[in-house]
Amino acid sequence: MIVTSARAAAHYQELKSLGLADAAGQRPYAGVVPGNEGALYGTTSQGGSNSAGTVFRLNQGGSGYTTLHTFTTNGVDGRSPNALIPGTDGALYGTSSIGGSNRVGTVYRLNQDGSSWSVLHHFGSIPADGQYPQAGLGEGSDGALYGTTFFGGTNDSGTVFKLNKDGTGYRVLNRFTGGPGDGENPDAALTQGSDGLLYGTTYSGGSNGVGTIFGLATNGASYSLLHVFARTGSDGQNPLAALLEARDGSLYGTTYSGGSNGVGTIFRLNKDRTGYSVLRSFSSTGGDGQNPHAGVVLGSDGAFYGTTWSGGAAGLGTVFRLFPPQTPDMIDAAMLGNAVRVRFAGMSGYNYQVLRSTNLASWSVLTTVTVPASGIGTNTDNAPPGPGAVYRAAWVP
Questions:
Q1: 129 and 41 in one domain?
Q2: Is the same domain home to 273 and 336?
Q3: Among candidates 191, 147, 185, 186, which has minimal Cα distance to 165?
Q4: How many H helices and E strands in the chain?
Q5: 8-state DSSP, 385
Q6: Which of 31, 209, 324, 396 has a CA-to-CA distance to 365 between 20 and 30 Å?
Q7: SS3 at position 271
Q8: What tens digit of pLDDT does each residue of 132-177 get?
Q9: 212-249 burial by CB neighbour count: b if 16+ within 10 A, else e?
Q10: More confident residue, 10 or 226
Q11: Binning pLDDT at 50, 70 and 90, where does residue 386 land?
């Protein structure tokens, strides 16, 4: 007898189609975020009754699509909103890339039922303020909101800012200077590392003009460039996405261009500036993805997942998976008399567990191996179970 499960056949489903005359909004630029009671929240960059964009709510099953806010015709509350974040207080926070009282963008807040809409900051309200934010916000461990603007600041090269969730305490933490000595034009949200510092990227600037990775403290101190992207040597160029701190404590990200084939990369960097490496250069042939706009996320299987803007079989983009470089590759499990020798390839200096199973359902840890300079980890099981067993290795972050 064969038993099947309906849930095993996961399938694509369109939950909402936005029409040309749809007052609910058009052309969502950012993704959705989960809120209370299984609802999803997002923005549209255009459309709505005033053609200035919207904030919307949608149940996960596709029902209950509701426009929570329609940006106004004169754009005083903002126009063309970017990504939302749910705050720890339950409210939604976001930025608009244009509009506001100075027409260069806003930070706004609203409740998940659409009530209590307020503009927390109109960019351009103080000297050398940021202008035209292109990314969403992040909430720091201190409860404050942090973000970037693409333009504005001292040299119109962009800024990093901080703002309390009640609209008070607005402060520009860093004004990029651009040119060869600094990054310019940050296009991505910030990431707060496990060390409490903020990490981000700039699309351009640096000594080679093709972007940087930077870090700074939440009070604006300790600003430094961690990496300056190069035009040569197959390095990535022009990052557009936020960074991810993975389980090993390193930062992972993507660049829109550069790499061996000029169509983008996935990279890794330690927070202390060491260990920079290009993990993958996307290819311009063979149906590979090209030009990633977004960063990577970490799946439950330990792999990184992401998307590319173009490339693929139809040239219209891809979804990809990449296992981290520490992922082990099994070499063999060989009988040596009454014992079993297990060998695997891993990264020198990293720790790996050697595991054994007789049913592929439950696994027992035999030992932990630190891979030597040869890159080959070895363990001998002196008491293997009969009639057989399966062995694998797992990286221990």
A1: yes
A2: no
A3: 147
A4: 0, 37
A5: P
A6: 324
A7: coil
A8: 999 999 999 999 999 999 999 989 999 999 999 999 999 999 999 9
A9: bbbbbebebeebebbbbbbeeeebbbbbbbbbbbbeee
A10: 226
A11: confident
pLDDT at residue 113 above 60? yes
pTM of the complete model: 0.86
Q: Structural domain tally of the chain? A: 3
- Are 336 and 264 in the same domain? no
Please report, for the domain that includes residue 45, its CATH number: 2.120.10.30
Q: Cα–Cα distances in Å, from 70 out to 112, 240, 305, 321?
A: 14, 27, 33, 37
Same-domain status, 34 and 163: yes
Say if residues 96 and 84 touch (Cβ distance below 8 Å): no
281 is in which domain, residue-wise? Answer: 191-325
Domain end marker among 148, 175, 202: 175
- Residue 301's pLDDT is 81
Rounded to whole angstroms, how far apart are CA atoms 232 and 210?
11
Among 264, 371, 296, residue whose Cα is nearest residue 327? 371
CA–CA separation, 202 vs 214, rounded Å? 8
Q: For residue 34, is the peptide bond before it cis, meaning its omega torsion is within 30 degrees of 0?
A: no
List the structure tokens of 159: 């800024």
Taking residues 360-383, report their average pLDDT.
96
Among 264, 293, 325, give the residue marking a domain's end: 325
Q: Is residue 29 part of a domain?
A: yes
For residue 343, give the CATH number of its domain: 2.60.40
Q: Are residues 340 and 306 part of one domain?
A: no
- 228 and 295 within one domain: yes
